[in-house]
Fold this sequence. Notes:
Two copies of one chain form a homodimer. Chain A is elongated, with a radius of gyration of 26 Å. In chain A, helix 5 runs parallel beside helix 12, helix 6 packs parallel to helix 7 and helix 10 packs across helix 11. In chain A, strand 3, helix 7 and strand 4 form a beta-alpha-beta unit. By secondary structure, chain A is an alpha/beta fold. Among the domains of chain A are: 43 residues, lambda repressor-like DNA-binding domains (434 Repressor (Amino-terminal Domain)), CATH 1.10.260; 141 residues, Response regulator (Rossmann fold), CATH 3.40.50. The structure holds a DNA duplex.
Amino acid sequence: MTRDPQDPPRSLTLRDVSEASGVSEMTVSRVLRGRGEVAAQTRARVVEAARRLGYVPNRIAGGLASKRVNLVAVVVPSLGNLVFPDVLTAVGAGLEAAGLHPVVGVTGYDPAREERVLYEMLAWRPSGVILAGLEHSEAARAMLRAAGVPVVEIMDVDGEAVDSVVGISHRGAGRRMAEAILAADYRRIAFLGTTMPHDHRARKRMEGFEAALAEAGVRLAEREFYSGGSSLAKGREMTRAVLARRPDLDFLYYSNDVIGAGGLLDVLGRGLDVPGRLGLAGFNGLELIEGLPRRLASMDACRHAIGHEAAAIVAGGLAGRRVELAPVLDPGDTIRRAAGAQAASAS
Amino acid sequence: MTRDPQDPPRSLTLRDVSEASGVSEMTVSRVLRGRGEVAAQTRARVVEAARRLGYVPNRIAGGLASKRVNLVAVVVPSLGNLVFPDVLTAVGAGLEAAGLHPVVGVTGYDPAREERVLYEMLAWRPSGVILAGLEHSEAARAMLRAAGVPVVEIMDVDGEAVDSVVGISHRGAGRRMAEAILAADYRRIAFLGTTMPHDHRARKRMEGFEAALAEAGVRLAEREFYSGGSSLAKGREMTRAVLARRPDLDFLYYSNDVIGAGGLLDVLGRGLDVPGRLGLAGFNGLELIEGLPRRLASMDACRHAIGHEAAAIVAGGLAGRRVELAPVLDPGDTIRRAAGAQAASAS
DNA sequence: GTGAAAGCGCTAACAT
DNA sequence: ATGTTAGCGCTTTCAC
């Protein structure tokens, strides 16, 4: 049952195709890569031989010889977070036209792990790197600078980039949400989010949120943090906990739509008047929010556009770009409409 | 702003480290790979020089020379499907101990695309292949057989494998659900699922489901299909459509938990008695079902165990294994409890 | 414990 | 339009 390592399943080489077709290795190579002018008849013989043998080119050898590789490293914190699969899908679509392939690495929000993942990926000499966030270890930044290929940091623009950056301002997003909430006359406001020390984007949203409240003379009434992945159940639990401590709260701002949805289901189940007595908002603009009993207020993280732009930068071999996208606030059905909302949100 | 392709950002080589440390390339290589006996002092000099220079080994060259590569191709239909990120996470964890790294490919449930993705990945001569499903083009199967490395087809065991297989029987899963539903005395039953012609597992669940109903003399009263991704909103919409056509239905079996959850929210919102008047069930055992107003009946797809087992087979270099896992049916709160349920489900 | 030589399978750069 | 030559940066093998 165990494969004998001595058993040499030597895979086919260009030479095999060359011999089978009676065409030189070099010309076979040209045909298979679609480079250079090759007589139609010669080409046909080569293609036929390669197909018949089941030849699969060895990109390891090809990459070594040409110093070019059609791989792009894409590094994200997690795949459980809904947002990242979406970004990856957009990146993949964007790279495809350029004949590039994404290679995905996952860091688990751990900087040390990110460093290792980057090291592994750079060892394959990819044509570009796309990675989430602006916060990396010094060693990681050094590796990225030394890589000599386009590096695009995505999701977040609040910080200093190694090379290019594509994202939104999470501080600004938190701020905008605070303004909308204040404009709707909510005043006893809580933030519910993750304790993960390395979810910098959630942290920045909270910072922007608190700053905007402070400017209006409002203090955050409560905070509730959790660790681990997001789930509806976690959202329910946190919501119950925070409302038990402070039953007079009138707004709950969640760090993402999943826990926000859980909270919404929970308060609706208890018959609370939403958004009259209690308002809620999440973040990300996930599809999820559309099927809930009330449409949860949220803010689009622009994940599709981010993936698309990042792919374009890598595919174009560009350097030093900065693309800041403007997320749209969707008030849904969980922020009450108040007179003067527009005016106040422009403050 | 555009990188000059003529600009040679020649990355560091073993030779650079060799010169910087005054140790031969060969010994530097040994140190960096942790192979062979090297004097502690020599090792220290090498490590220091490599670190100082920021040397990242070139695995393209290494792979070519050694014919061994620490990459495992993992091919899944989609990342939007919640299930696959979970499987990938388990695969990654399982491979890690063996020093192997997953490289993810996405097919979009398209066999032609799967073939291209496999071709691309096999061109990198990975140490193993893990791919979802048993249905592949003949060319894809030929490539896999010729690869000369462990190939593990995952998720589904109903069919013929190229090499190893790890999964559950989806036909059996559909059958078991049908038995539980019948035992609970539901009789006017509908199936709601995807039209995607290539979601073979959903198809097999429906087949097993119908077969078990037929054996009990019950015909599927309705079916409703949709295309595109799953969402709560889609689940609501389908549920409304099917109940509009057949208001007397007493059970809805969904092909996954996401549309099932949408359906559940919809019928609860309309005040229907669940599970008395109407029962519901989904599939996958997603975390999602735990935060709903009622716990949706579901069946665990064993995605974590599948990822784990598949990784073990690749890491162990094993061939021809067959691992059939037993999914557990969780009746949740959406299948009514009926006398004789146990007896009937054993039929 | 360390080094020298050969070559992995391809492609760049020149021939022809 | 096609062939020849010389590596790409590493590891294998064997010598010391």
